[in-house]
Structure formats: structure tokens, C-alpha cells
Amino acid sequence: MPDRGGGPTGPRIRVGRPSRRVRTLLMTLGVLAVLAMLFVMFAGFWTDWLWYRSLHYSSVFSTTLRTKIGLFFVFGLLMATAVGINIWLAHRLRPPLSAMSLEQQSLDRYRMGIAPFKKWVLLAVTALVGLIAGASAAGQWRIWLLWVNGVPFGQKDPQFHKDVSFFAFDLPWYRFLLSFGFAATVLSLIAAALVHYLYGGLRVTSPGARATAAATGHLSVLLGVFVALKAVAYWLDRYGLAVKSSDFKATGNWTGLRYVDANAYLPAKTILFCIAAICALLFFATLWRRTWQLPVIGFGLMVLSAILIGGLYPAIVQKFQVQPNEQAKEAPYIQKNIEATRKAYGIDDSKVADYKGESKADNKSLRADADSTASVRLLDPNVVSPTFQQRQQVRGYYGFPSTLDVDRYKTKAGADQDTVIGLRELNIAGIPERNWINDHFKYTHGYGAVAAKGTSTTRNGLPDFTEKNLPAEGEFDAYQQRIYYGEKTKQYSIVGGPQKELDYSGNNGDEKTYTYTGKSGVSLSNPMNRAAYALAFGEPQILYSGAIGDGSRILYNRTPKERVEKVAPWLTIDGDAYPAVVDHRIKWIVDAYTTTNGYPYASRTTLGDTTADSLSDGERSVVAQQNKVNYIRNSVKATVDAYDGSVKLYEWDTKDPVLKTWEKAFPGTVEPRGKISDSLMEHFRYPQDLFKVQRELLTRYHVTNPAQFYSGSEVWQVPDDPTNKGNSVPPYYLSMRMPDQKKQKFSLTTTFTPNDRDNLGAFMAVEADAKSSGYGTIRLLKLPPNTPVSGPQLVQSLFNSNPKIAESIRLLKGGDSTVEYGNLLTVPLDGGLLYVEPVYVRGAGTDYPLLKKVLVSDGGDRIAFEDSLDKALDVAFGQSRSGDPTKPPADSGQTPSDNPTVRQALKDAQKAWEDSQKALEQKPQDWDAYGRAQESLKEALDKAAKAEQKAADRQSGKQGQKQNQPQSQGAPGKGG
Fold first, then answer.
1. Contact, 848 vs 820, CB < 8 A?
2. Were 215 and a residue from 28, 196, 703, 834 both cysteine, which residue would form a disulfide, CB within 3.0 to 4.6 Å?
3. Model confidence at 9, in pLDDT bands (50, 70, 90)?
4. Residue 289 and residue 372 in contact, taking contact as beta carbons nearer than 8 Å
């Protein structure tokens, strides 16, 4: 035994080896620790496999896993081999160590320390770089699958005349290979240089030659490989110009070649490719010349050329050729960008028409056409969720989404009816007694759909429900009402075992129980499955709970978007999944997109920003595989069954090459379009996120003339939501008829305003009914730029500043009630425009809004604020008198705007209202300024009301005098 401590006369401490029992215990603990780590890794893999298998999408899991493993091992081995061979070669080429310099003597101790472990060091270094490289390569599985399965687009870029698939599928993979080659070369170069230095092949301070011939040749070859890769990079950069993003002051975000790219950068890249290739050959020549003189000169020439040819020359061309006549020089390239962008986003077939914005029709015709032009949706799905909650929640453990959905259902007469629909989903926070059994075994599902007419309400302002109560009853055919999968269902549930579930509570308060009979979820009858899920969910009770037995199944990943995203990880998912009652089932319908970032000349957009509006939140945000794209198609319609969670992917865009590529990579996952049933097709609609992307692009790309595009004189913007400033107005679904249509079509609509202005620039609508022959047709009505027509913000201001309306709103707010404005809908009407906005009141004693008033305006003098839409239209178009008139009758000869006192009062009221809003927008809010502004607003409204009353009294007197005069028997000067 070795001795420790103590001197010749001190105590001696004997340190012995651990006993056999201790060593056995330590070894056992070590083995158990390793096994535990392996089981943790296995649990994640195994539960994923079980989940995919339960949905019959195991091929997605296996294909993805197989691809990742293949890339990991192939590129990990390539990197490890490259670095390992160069380390071994550098060691083999080390010089004999004879006369030792001071530098070599200081390194000798490191060499001696490493000597016994050289093989282990080599293995450790190569394993480390191999693992890192393999993990990086595994993350590129999408690029690999696109490259190996790529389908031609059948379209060629205008510069290089290559198929678009080269830029979308091939170029990204070539760039990855190039970056991998650079990484392998640089790491090999560093490793070889360190070994050569350690063993004397390279000398920093020693006299004589700085490198041996062997080290010179070895490192020169590696440098030659690096420069050769740089030559390849220059060549690929030529094609990269077609998809390069840059800032162009005339257009903002720009993708593709401009004049300087085509006439300076493109030839410069070709020249630099040639120079780099020659320089690489010079480095390889050092194997025979054993000198770095020529390669260093060549490398210096390449760097100088990159500065002069690749940097200075394009700057000179831009300064002296382009800038003096930029519009003419850039026109051909702007034209290419316009054409490519419009095609890539599917807006090239948009129908654009000029629209006056002011109708010349008489009031009677306008009133008659208002009913046939649009079925105006008064029930705002963004406002009435609390009303659904209060009237149809039934129990506290149910809930509705904060924003409901708009769909179409047949009436008993067979007509299509715009319908607001929501599902009564399980609200886990509302469970009376929270514990593990209640949360995951007893309260497992929601129950029933609730629907209401979108175009009308009851007399007291409540939604006119067509499907209601629990269990649900109404106009829908009998259907499976239990909702195990929904937007609010985010916790796991264990069903089908000995523990009974709460189905719903009966009218007498008795609880109806239920046992799940669906085939979804993963069986927990296997002890290994239970152990894996106990570990995956961090819940040990899953392993030993008596509530789990034969037939028990665990349901998780239960939101529709999450399920579609997992079974099709190559798709981008629309932010709004919506429910439909189809074929006696509740189906969640999810729109999905194929995208790419490599469409030549097409400008890019950021999906997260483009699809954001005043309704976007964590529940309604797009799920994007890549956020920046320049090509998008709604290629897939997906459904998720609310009861059994089954996912179906249906091919929608049958011509999309990106979808065809993914179908080759994952065969059998997407079903053909022909398998979509007619009943399901009735509920498909044009997706909102695609529409928002297209409208954002159309703010600029509605212009097809390069000169006009360059000037930016016709740029539009998506207006802010009038009732939610700072956020874009959301698009709205409603049934309406555009000027070139003969009947109403279910449409998705929006408005545009000119840049930095509030008047209307254009109106956009797309046919949203999937069964319509015109589905997807985009129509744009362009308003005259020199004739200002009120946009949404100005119309809202008109409503807010009207004295009578403001007074009525003030009365509605009496008793601590609050007023909420619904969607401000815009509808083209006989050459003019019709604006309709429902007004809801949330009473002090209630916690939900009721529709109490409807605002109607044509953007001008016609304005009404009445209890119903019909009455508001009658009043606005002079077919009826208002009980509390907002303007004199049409034949009075006097309107509020004709009175200068009223006009000035309205201006003062508008300014006071704007001042009050500015005070609220301050941080912190300026309540003193707000109070002063409100006082000014009241004074202005009182002043306007008095002036109006005086004018009305005078007019009444004139009418009375006129009635007392004798009637003329004929027109003067016409005889008889």
C-alpha cells in the first residue's frame, strides 16, 4: 500500500483501495445511471413513435428519423474522417527531432504528455467534430428531401434561364455542401497546423526555415482546397443574385438582380471565379515547388480583385451609370420583379377595375339594392364570444374561444346562411375541484357546437341561436357532440379505462358519465408505455395509478394546428383553425401552405408580421416552418376529427410543384383532392393568412407599370383597425356581390388606404366559397386618387363626431354600461360605398355585449344610427324618418353640413375627440388633458345640437307657410 503524509518520526497513513463491495456498488450505480440516461432518451423516441403510429402517420416519423440519422452519420463521418486524416498525416510528416531549439524544448513536455494518449486524443477530437457536424447536417433534412425529390416548376428565371426548381430545391443544398466543405477544410487546416507546430513542422521563433517541406506541402494543399471552394462559391453566387435580398430605396424590400447586379456583379463573380481557380492551382503546385511565393502572390491578387472588381467596380457603375438615370436603367429589372412576385404569390390573375366611390343612383334605388348587394353580418365573431359564454356555457368547466368563427350552413329552406359558430370546449381552469384525477381522468372533453345567424339578432340584441343548449339541439342534423380535440384542449387526458368520465350534467344536476370508445391516443396497458409516458410528462402516478387499467389510452397533442403541424412538418399552418359540423361529426378544418424562400426575382415577406392584425394572438398566429418566404400556395386542406383526433390531409392545389416534391418525399400522406366529400367541400373557405399575405403584397404590386412602380405614387397601405389603433384591420367574411357579379358570393374582404392618408384607396374581395367556380378570384376596386372617398378611419371619426350619435352613445353608456363597436364592414353599392357597423352595449349588471344599435353611412352625408339594420338603411337613404333623427329628411333642403355653425361645431368636436385619444395614448395617461378634452367635446356637441334645432324650427315654419299658400293651377308661361 502506498504511504501518504508523515515524516521519519510522524504517523504513517495507509491509503487502501476501496473494498470489493464498494467497487461493486459504485459500478452498479454507474451502470444504473447510464441506463437511466439511455431510458430518458428512449422515452422521448418511443412516445413519439407511438403517437405517430396511433394516427397512422408512422411513415412521417420513420422517413424523418431515417433522413436525420443518415445525414448525421454521413456528414459526421465525413467531417471526422477529414479532420482525423489530416491530424494523422501531419503527425506522420513530423520531422526527426535532433538538435532541439529553445522553442522545441518548451513544446517537448506537451509532446511527452500526449504521447501515451495519442490515439485517444485523435479519437476524442474526431468524435467531437463529427458529432457537431452530424447534428448540424441532421437539421438540414428538409433541404435534403427537397433536393433529392425536387419536381420542376415548368418556369424559367429571366436571367439564367434555369427552371425555378434549381433555385428553390438545388441551390440551397449546394450551398449547404459548400458551407460544410469550408468548415471541414478550415477545421482540418487548424488541426494540421497545430500538429505540425507541436512536432516541429512549423516554427515561430526558431532560426532557419519556418516550415518543413512536408508541412509546406500539406498546408498548401489544404489552402488550395479552401481557395477552390471559394471559386465554387463565386460561381454559385452568380445564381444567388437571382434570389438575393437587398434594399432598394424606390421599392423597399427587393429580391433579384438590378442593373448593377447584371452589369457589374455578375461579370465580377465570373472573373473572380477564374482568378480563384488559378490561385487554387498555384497552391496545389507547392507539392512540387515547395515554396509559397507564387500561391501567396495569387492569393493576394484574388483579395485585391475581390476588393476592386467585386466591390469598387459595382459602386462606380451604380454611382455614374445608374444614379443619373435610375428609373430608365432599373425599369427592365423592376418589370421582372413585378411579374415574378405577382406569380409567386398568386396575385397575377387579380381583376382590377376603376370604381367611382360615389353613387349617382337615387335614394330609393340605393335602398333597394342594399338588400341584394350584401347579407351584412351584424354578429361580430370578435365581440360576441362573451355572449355565447354567458348564454351557452352552461357549466363553468366549459368555454368558448375569444374569437368565434364564420361559416355557412343551409337553412331549412335550403339557402346558404352566414353563421357564427363556436364549440363548447373543456375549460380546465373552471373545474370545481382541481386534482390529478379530475384534471386528467374525469373532465376530459367539451360538448356540442353553438351557432347563431350572422345577419340578425333577437329583439333584445342577443344572438339568434340556430344550435344551442346541452346536449345541443337546433337546425344541425344529429352529430357526435363530444369534443376531445380543440383549440383550448392543451392538457393530456387518460380515457377508456376503469375511471368514468363526466359526460355532461343533466337538467336535474345529475352527472352523466361516459367511457371513451374512440381509437385515438396511445394504449397504456403496456408497462413500458406507462413508464415512458410517466417520464415524458414528468408524472410518476401514470406508472402506478390504479385509475389506469385495461383499455386506458392517453390523449395528447390535442389542438388541431399542433396535430397537423406534427404529421406534416413540412407545411406552414394557417393561424385560424375553424370547426364545421360535417357528416354527423365535428371536424376542425385547417388550411396549410407550401412555401419556399428561393423563387427568383420574387420579393420576400415575413409571415409573422404580414399576417398580424388586431385579432392576432397566441391562438391565431401562423405556424411557419420558415418565416421569410417569397412563394406561397394553399396546397393542403386538413381536417381533424374533434372526437377521435384523426387527421386527414387533402391535396388542394394540384399544380403546386412544392407539394408534389413533398408528396414524393412522404408518399401516401396526402390524399387526392377527389376524396373530399361534397358536404366537407361546402365548409372549405379561402384562408385568412394567405389573404393577408396577398393584400400586403398588393399594396405595392397592384401596379404593373415599372415607371409608376418606381415612383411609388400609387402605394397603398392596410389601414389600422378604427376601434383598435396600432393594429391592422382584419379581413372580414361576408356574403356580398361585387359590381361584376350577378349574385352574392361568400367572400373575404378588406380595404386599402393611400400611403399616410385615411381616405379609401381600394376595396379588395376574394371569392371564398370553395364550391364556387370563381373560388380564389381576387377583385380590386380602385378609387380615383383625386376624389377623396372616406376610408374606415374617417367613417369611424364621422360616427364619433356626429352630435346626435355622440349624444345617443352617451345615453347608452349611462348607468356604468360600456359601448363596444363591432366590425366596420365596407360594401360596394351602385358605384358608391356602404359602411355598416354594429354597436354593442355591455350593461352594468351583465358581463356580455348585446347588439343595440346599427351605424350606417355612405361615407358622406347619408348617416343613420338605428335599432336595426333595416331601419338604419331606411333612414340613411331617406325612406323613413328616424325617431331620434341624425339628419333632416331628404326633402328639407337643409343638412347639418349646410349650417356653418354646425360645421364649425363638428370640427371642434372632432378636434376635442382627437385630443382626448392622444391623452389616453400618453404613458402615463394624461387624465387632466383627457378631462379638458371631454368638456370641450360636450360643449361642441351642445352647440351643434342647438344650432341644428334652430335650423329645424325655422324649416318647420317655412313648411307650414308653404302648406297654407293656395296651390297653383298651372305652370306660368305655359298657358291653361
1. no
2. 196
3. very low
4. no
Query: First vs last Cα of the chain: how many Å apart?
Result: 147
Residues 302, 307, 308, 311, CA torsion sign: positive
Contact 52, 567 (CB under 8 A): yes
Least confident of 162-176, 476-490, 601-615, 911-925: 911-925
What span, in angstroms and rounded, lies between the C-alpha atoms of 167 and 170? 6
pLDDT of residue 934: 64
Angle at 410 between CA 406 and CA 415, to 5 degrees: 110
Average pLDDT over residues 331-347: 95
Confidence of residue 963 (pLDDT cuts 50, 70, 90): very low
Q: How far lies 214's CA from each of 85, 220, 290, 785, 963, in Å?
A: 15, 10, 8, 76, 119
949 neighbors 905 (Cβ within 8 angstroms):
no
Strands (E), 519-674: 522-523, 553-555, 572-573, 578-582, 585-596, 605-606, 628-629, 631-641, 647-651
- Measured between alpha carbons, how far is residue 674 from residues 652, 792, 858, 915 in Å? 9, 42, 44, 59
Does an H or E element contain 300, and which?
A: helix 293-307
Phi, psi (degrees; rounded to nearest 5) at 505: -95, 130
Q: What is the mean pLDDT of residues 424-436?
A: 92
Question: Nearest to residue 792, comparing CAs of 697, 859, 874?
Answer: 859
Which amino acid makes up residue 763?
F
**610-648: string of b/e by CB count within 10 Å (b at 16+)?**
bbbbbbbeebbbbbbbebebbbbbbbbbbbbbbbbbbbb
Question: How buried is residue 773: exposed, middle or buried, by Cβ count under 10 Å (0-12/13-18/19+)?
Answer: exposed
Extents of the domains making up the chain: 59-211, 214-344, 346-375+687-889, 378-483, 491-557, 558-684, 894-951
Q: What is d(CA 535, CA 495) in angstroms, rounded to the nearest whole number? A: 19
Predicted pLDDT of residue 117 = 76
- State how beta strands 501-505 and 825-829 pair: unpaired
CB 602 within 8 Å of CB 625: no
H runs (alpha helix) in 647-730: 657-665, 678-681, 688-701, 706-711
**pLDDT score recorded for residue 727:** 82
Is the per-residue pLDDT at 16 higher than 60? no
What is the arithmetic mean of pLDDT over 322-335?
91
Q: How confident is the model at residue 33 (pLDDT cuts 50, 70, 90)?
A: confident
On the question of pLDDT at 440 being above 90, the answer is: yes
